[in-house]
Amino acid sequence: MRAETRAAFIKTLPVSASYLVLGFGFGVLLVSRGYPFYWALIISLTVYAGSMQFVLVDLLSGGAGLVTAALMTLLINARHLFYGISMLEKYRSAGRKKPYLIFALTDETYSLLCAQDPPAGLDRYRYYFEVSALGHFYWALGSLLGALAGAALPWDFQGVEFSMTALFVVVFTEQWMSAQGRLPALIGLGSSLACLAAFGPGRFILPSMGLILLLLTALRSRMSIGETQA
């Protein structure tokens, strides 16, 4: 085993637990909507968008149009634009590995690669590639296992769609507990409730995400001051 692979494996072990579990949930959810098990692997290999894949299941089963799917993806994964900007220097000389490194940049991979430099003596870009590829592997494996289990076992899938709601509740709770300021969380919650009341449960997601983006942009200076004072 390459030294870079060994170091990346050790580094990504904590990520493997969450990716296998969440990927498993995605696979089960996809199969419960009537899709063949192999689509879970195909989507995880080609889309690889974490929470967006849970949303994608609803978009596919609900017959959403291309424009709706594109806007939803842009709003949910807009944070990756900022990730990419901050990684320009780190990936600048990655050569042929650069396209995949860009594609496989997730929240967890970004955190691992920004936390500290690779161990001394290792090929930097090989290490970056291994960390990214292992995360991708964990997610795809979890998705496939979940889809196979969902297709093979006589489960009652009633209520499984709540897994996506539970995922976002966990993310919200974690950010609420760790954040220095509560304003972004309150903006997200308030905007969602307001749009839910205005547009109804079937049409509130896009308007609420657009409103959240506008409010966060308008109040970014105030939030920055609050974090500095904290």
Commentary on this structure:
With 230 residues, this protein is mainly alpha-helical. The protein has two domains: 150 residues, no CATH class; 51 residues, no CATH class. It contains 13 helices and no strands. The longest helix is centred in the first third of the chain and has 30 residues. The model has no long low-confidence stretch (mean pLDDT 84).
- Helix content range of the residues, please? over 70%
* Mean of pLDDT: 84
Poorly predicted residue ranges: none
Gap from first CA to last CA:
46 Å
Name the shape in a single word: globular
Strand content: under 5%
Secondary-structure element string: HHHHHHHHHHHHH
Structural class assignment: mainly alpha
Q: Count of DSSP helices?
A: 13
Features:
230 residues; mainly alpha; 13 helices; 76% helix
